[in-house]
Amino acid sequence: MDAFSIREVIEMAVRTEVLGNSYYSELAAKFKGGDREIYELFTKLAEAEKNHIVAFTALREKVGDEEPDNWQDISEYMRAFVESAFFLGKDKAMLHMQNVTDPLHAVGLAIGFEKETLLYFYTMRDSVREKHIVNEIIEEEKHHIVWLSKYKAQRSGH
Known about the structure:
Layout: H1 6-30, H2 36-62, H3 71-82, H4 93-97, H5 103-125, H6 131-156
């Protein structure tokens, strides 16, 4: 199995944010005519993902080609993560989203996607010198989970 380069790991972070933006934009469109609160939540999340695309693209330009210590192990973990079914594999959230009609189910899928994304970014952060950039995005991703969880709790009565 070939190792990913640090630039490829960051490129996959960009791809993840593109998927997130698409996911939330599609969900916002799906619920536009109904629940205004869920529409606004998904619109806000889509916009945040756009900002992350810009940040990771800038990070990709800053990193050199020098790989960090223990890169082989990190790279193998990142490859396994990217190939996992939920994150970018055949059962990824985008496929589930196409058939979702219940806002609470959509929020549940979004929370799962955000958690998987956080795990990826934590590992990536440990691999780059520019930790502050990834830390900022991690903090925003945590906020996404809070927003989604609050919506879910309000709607489900928990």
